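Priority: medium. Attachment 1 of 2:
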């Protein structure tokens, strides 16, 4: 879906944060923010929810643990029981290294896969920039352009009041 956007660049972090907070307060749709380094408090200002990746990692780790314990119990107790020095077949201490390794393996691989899927970073994806040079050394705020003219003028005034160095309009695939 093609949508019209406003791209405002800022010379400093304070102006960018002020613009993001005011835009959300005025109920403008913040599409994205570009910055050359991480900015403390930007996630809260943009209203970004906490990620669900830790929950996915926990579920994947528990699945790996269950898989390891099931596999070892099945092979050592049911399928191929060996009497080694009179030890019990289901010796839990012997299961710990493999259980740990499969827990970490499943958790790591599923977390990476979930992150790549959620971020839409699949092979063959073409990069898209809202405006040339936005990732170089500039702070940029991308707003979805309001449909009515009054809101559009309010958005432009808000961005100028917060110290935007330049404001451009373009189209984007949202």
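Attachment 2 of 2:
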């Amino acid at each position: 879906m093609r949508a019209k956007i406003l791209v405002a660049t800022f010379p400093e972090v304070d102006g960018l944060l002020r613009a993001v907070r005011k835009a959300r307060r005025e109920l403008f749709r913040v599409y994205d923010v570009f910055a050359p380094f991480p900015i403390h408090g930007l996630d809260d200002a943009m209203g970004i929810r906490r990620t669900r990746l830790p929950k996915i990692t926990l579920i994947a780790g528990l699945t790996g643990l269950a898989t390891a314990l099931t596999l070892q119990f099945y092979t050592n107790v049911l399928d191929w029981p060996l009497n080694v020095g009179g030890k019990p077949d289901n010796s839990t201490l012997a299961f710990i290294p493999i259980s740990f390794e499969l827990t970490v393996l499943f958790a790591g691989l599923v977390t990476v896969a979930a992150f790549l899927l959620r971020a839409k970073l699949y092979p063959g994806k073409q990069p898209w920039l809202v405006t040339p040079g936005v990732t170089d050394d500039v702070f940029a705020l991308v707003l979805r352009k309001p449909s009515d003219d009054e809101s559009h003028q309010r958005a432009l005034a808000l961005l100028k009041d917060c110290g935007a160095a330049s404001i451009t309009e373009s189209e984007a695939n949202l």
